[in-house]
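Box 3.1 A note on notation
Throughout this textbook, protein chains are presented in two layers. The first layer is the amino acid sequence; the second is a token string describing backbone geometry. Keep the layers aligned when reading.
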Amino acid sequence: MLRLKKLGIDTCHETVAFLARRCPLYRAQEFVALARIEIMGGGRRIVATLNIVDDESIMASDELGLSLLAHRQLGLADGTEVEIAQAAAPVSLEHVRAKIDGAVLPPEAYRAIAQDLVAHRYSKMEIAAFLIASARFTTAPEVLSLTRAMASVGSRLSWNGGMIVDKHCIGGVPGNRTSMIVVPIVAAHGLKIPKTSSRAITSPAGTADTMEVLARVDVGTDEMHEIVAEENGCLVWGGHANLSPADDVLISVERPLSIDTPEQMVASILSKKLAAGSTHLVLDLPVGPTSKLRSRESFVRLRKLFEYISDEVGLETIIVGTDGSQPVGCGIGPWLEARDVLQVLEGDPAAPRDLRDRALLLAGHVLEFDPALRGGRGIARARELLESGAALAKMRRLIAAQGPSPAADELGVLRHDVVAARDGVVTVIDCLRLARIARLAGAPIDKGAGVDLFKKIGDPVAKDEPLYRIHAAFDADFRFAAKFAADGDGYAISGVS
């Protein structure tokens, strides 16, 4: 028997075990070929990817090391005796192979795949194979099967009946932090909008990262129910809720490979909304040359797929196409985006007009789910709640209910202005490049890192006038971001005739 040892190694969404090469009980080379083992002990068992350790200072030869995720999943104390064996391939892997061959999979196949994903029985290589195969061949009915399967594995929130509204954006446009304005507007009106949001994986900020500048977002489901019962809404991180955990596993492989197909996107978003207990949803689909949707045709295709799946699962959905040609607001990064949000809520004359207008548009659509509002009255009601201060008061109540933020970050003190190379007018802003610069500057790890925009499309600019300012808190990040911006600032400027 091997003795367990928890190693302080974060392997993200992969369950990893570590075996000493000189282990006297098992020959490491016998496990290397498949690299997947089953760990058994204390009436529990998990499957893990095996890594081999040569450094005896890390762990003893008769110990089995576990990554943080593996230790949490197995749930046994250090020193517990366990045994290991070669892990059999998950039964559902046969469905993946069939998918690779072009087969149309039945609903039960997707349920089996989702269950094995959540149990961490797949290696990242096998997950990548499934993602690529399904991206090539998945039909609309299969997307429906995958959506239902992912929603059924994990927790589901219940809100004791009634209308539960939600708003979501597919992403790809920096600074598009409308949820933090929409939620207090809608909650102030009286509709229930429990907003569970994600943290950024490859972007400079997720809604949870930005809200964490203002309040605690690490909220459990019981506390979340209490807040919503009192305030009609919340803005929390969805990690505690365990909603559609199969999606989290898929995302951990999708993002590094830049796989973001319409089919996977629809299944990912709608499975989480179903698990969150939403009944009515407004979806923001930005379209622009450097956003996720780059043409009218791609927008129409995705809209139709969202509409089909939403209808089949009983989720009433309104889809709104918005401008994705440039960042929304002025800030890219948690602290800067939170500043923009507060400026809008507070009615500050310096508030970004585009962020305000987009938030009102989306909030108006959400409010029109209320039968008491006549058609077209939603945006007027949203503007009334914003301009009267009711939305700001509600946001302050949400912040108080969720508690103070554990993040003490301030705006990054390392600063570099990126200036225009010529006189002219801004004609193009590359969303992807600006997001990458903000990420290199340290966002979202450093809440105060990011990019503060001074110029948007259509603005005149003089040679050597600042286009934006990079903020960073860590010297290496500052240098990385400044160098990347020097190689290409992400702006196109037309000459003045």
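The chain has a mean pLDDT of 93. The radius of gyration is 24 Å.
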